[in-house]
Amino acid sequence: MNDSRVQPLMAPAAQEDLPLAAPPLAAPVRLESRGEGIAHLVFEPPAGKVNLLNAGVISLLEILVAQAAGQRLRGLVVRSARPDQFIAGADVNEIRALRSFQDAEQASRRGQRLFAAIEALPFPVVAAIGGPCLGGGTELALACHYRVAADQPRVEIGLPEVRLGILPGWGGTQRLPRLVGLAPALDIILNGRSLDARRARAVGLVDEVAPPELLLPAAERLIEEVHEGTRRRAARLADGFLARVNPWRRVSIALTARVARRRLQSRVDERHYPAPYLALDAITHGLTSAPEEGYVFESESLGHLAVGPTSRGLVALFALQQEARRDPVVAARPRPIEITAVVGAGVMGGGIARTLARSGFTVRLKDIDAQALGRGMAVAHGLEEAELRKRRITRSERDRRVDRLLPTLEYTGFKRATVVIEAVVESLRVKHQVLRDLEAAAGEDFIFATNTSSIPIAAIAAPARRPDRVIGMHFFNPVHRMPLVEVIRGPQTSDETVATIVDLTRRIGKTPVVVGDAPGFLVNRILMTYLGEALLLFEEGARVDTVDRAMREFGMPMGPFALLDQIGIDVAAHVAQVLTEAFPDRAPKTAMLQVMKEKGWLGRKAGKGFYLYREGARDEPDAAPSSAPGEVHGEAAAVVPASRATAGPAGAVESRLVLPMINEATRCLEARLVRDPAAIDLAMVLGAGFPPFRGGLLRHADTLGIPNVIQSLDLLAQRHGTRFQPARLLQDLARSGRGFFVE
């Protein structure tokens, strides 16, 4: 920054210690004088990265805050050196490194002391928030006396700690409810919700919203207004002794907390996700106790959570997601993309087109049938209307998104498309016809990305003029909810094509996992062992609702039969057939899906499958799939004569369904279908709903212990057949005493 007013507030000795010939190293945070009694506490992010709070930064902050306290300042502005940033939170690697309750509690108490020192500074302190302000960044901002946020899309302010299995541990559970009130604080903390600048202003989380280019002048002007007496701190929730013992206030807090707990219980199981429940306790304890007691409760709660299995699993999963967003995958550079196209306007095609349009891409959506095209557009419009109703977007943003969707019955305009995503029926003949039509109508260099769920990419690319530009881009249903995209590399797919589709996947807000070309690819191949065993349990006499309940208790978002209904019985039958032909020795053999397909019991979309669905529920574009859809479909239960066998206890169901997934995932590693176990864990959580708190399928295997997994598979093989025989890699791991992951 070329500004004569800017002078580092460093001890002279520290400056003199630097070699004269070497440029000074950029500190992660520094104190700068701006003249006229105002200083800036400036966070300097590493190149290409965001500001994070770690032990080193905390140590430096402790020194700088003490130094500022000794200066005769009129005010302090806390900001990022990059105008589109603030502080993205604490360094997750340091959370992973915590090994004991004492380590976590002490880290919490240290942060609390630092932020208390900021709050106690004898002059106005203003946080100038120009970008992401999350977790510890928000807790730092709460310790400031005022907050000004830039009116731009990159600003998001929130406390997402519960998504990592912990709670805000640097005073967030104590300061936020006192600033914005109990109900808004519960919504933000218990849901891990973040707010844009305008919504944060509406709830009182920020004091002012300014254009990005005027953010710093607005922060400095606010300091002057404090000294002029025209600006006062926002009224906070009463916190004195009389307020804490006021019976009406205590009753109000208790009733609000009871409602919040009931809502939590309807969404998450406390056994699996204890963090929001402890966060609720920390908030209410803080409002009904002396302030210091609330901070102690917060730090002790963090101590318990940070070293618990749920946090371990969620933090590990978060690290996998971050790596998937950064990993270049291949050395080639992606091609630039502005215009895309989707062929096939069904539920998947409409959802894909809408996802592209909401991410800023112009999209040609084509179908051969006008009614199908209308339905695809209706899906997209319905999803945007749902966003508008929930106030997630404005009317103008909705209109811009819809305007980017260009429906057509012809291939007009396709010559300008860099990527064409094919989402037609799962038929090799039809896909080949679409490919031939596109080669005649589109440009020379377009990428053909097929949304096939099971057909090998090599087979689809066989007649292509440019097989190097044919790739799989497998979205999961429903597209707007499922974050995973399998990027399937065919035997001739080029590095540039892979890089382009991986980049596109990230730009539309999805997580890519690159997979080799094999029957069922990755997720469906592993998942069908789970679904197939559930179907065999059903044929052996197990009740649909009993099996589903057991797997929900394990942590799956829905049971296997509800999931089959959600996927579609016809789609599941097709994938099962492909996998049975590819792996006849170990694919579960059941005719149930084919029987239901012939009867038209196709699941949610048909109103009946293993469950019955109320009229119209299947047509709601933004309806969340229910874990318990409704009444069990009695006719389906009567199709296959039940034997005398039963499912047994929940643990037996869990072993029967989960262990085959571990075994098949291990075979996928043996076949080098993916690069490492991390790719499998990420794909199974994001694409199949494997419980996030368990960290992933193969991390769960490590938790069980590889020798125990093998012993259980051997017992299942003795009872149910050779399909349960442990994979060779599992046996190798057991002999070497290793697991899939090394911590």
Explain briefly what this protein structure is.
49% of the residues lie in helices and 10% in strands. It is of the alpha/beta class.
Main sheet specs: 8 strands, mixed
Provide the β-strand percentage band: 5-15%
Counted by DSSP, the helix tally is: 31
Average pLDDT for all residues = 90
Please estimate the helix content.
40-55%
Structural notes for this entry:
With 743 residues, this protein is of the alpha/beta class. It contains 31 helices and 18 strands. The strands form 3 sheets. The protein has an 8-stranded mixed beta sheet, sandwiched between helices. Strands 1-2-3-4-5-7-10 form a 7-stranded mixed beta sheet, with helices on both faces. It has a 3-stranded mixed beta sheet with strand order 6-8-9. Helix 16 (370-389) packs antiparallel against helix 17 and helix 22 crosses helix 27 (650-670). The longest helix is centred in the middle third of the chain and has 21 residues, at 247-267. Residues 1-24 and 618-628 have low confidence and may be disordered.
Topology:
Elements: E1 7-8, H1 12-16, E2 29-33, E3 38-43, H2 55-69, E4 75-80, H3 92-97, H4 101-119, E5 125-129, E6 133-134, H5 136-143, E7 146-150, E8 157-158, H6 172-180, H7 182-190, E9 194-195, H8 197-203, E10 208-210, H9 215-228, H10 241-245, H11 247-267, H12 275-288, H13 291-306, H14 309-326, E11 339-343, H15 347-358, E12 362-366, H16 370-389, H17 395-403, E13 405-408, E14 419-422, H18 428-441, E15 447-450, H19 457-461, E16 470-475, E17 484-489, H20 495-507, E18 511-516, H21 523-539, H22 544-554, H23 560-567, H24 569-582, H25 592-599, H26 634-637, H27 650-670, H28 677-688, H29 697-704, H30 706-720, H31 728-736
Parallel strand pairs: 3-4, 4-5, 5-7, 6-8, 7-10, 11-12, 11-14, 12-13, 14-15, 15-16, 17-18
Antiparallel strand pairs: 1-2, 2-3, 8-9, 16-17
Helix pairs in contact: 2-4, 4-13, 5-6, 6-7, 6-12, 7-11, 7-12, 11-12, 12-13, 14-28, 15-16, 16-17, 21-24, 21-27, 21-28, 22-27, 23-24, 24-25, 27-30, 29-30
